[in-house]
Design brief:
This protein is mostly helical and 103 residues long. It has one domain. It has seven helices and no strands. Helix 3 runs antiparallel to helix 4 and helix 4 crosses helix 5.
Length: 103
Amino acid sequence: MLAVELGLPCPLKATTGIDCPLCGATRATFALLRGDVGAALDFNALYVLLIPVVVVVALTWLIRRRQPTVLRSRAFPVVALVVAVVYMALRNLPFAPFDYLGT
């Protein structure tokens, strides 16, 4: 069971030692399935905090049967990329409070 919980290793982390924006997401998912929100936040806080946002956007898409406005925005991919890059940079800083964000 433990091997399944650990998931596949991140190629970026395995080769460089750097945490990518999704490092820890598999472990966070398993922690959430066990009801351990604290552990999930330890593994990947951004991923855990974005889950409700993704669920709301998906439900909006299903109910209205058209793509939500936020996804049609030209700024959306840019904002998503900037958030991912900033989160990746912050979680790889080796001092407090940013060292908490690493896996």
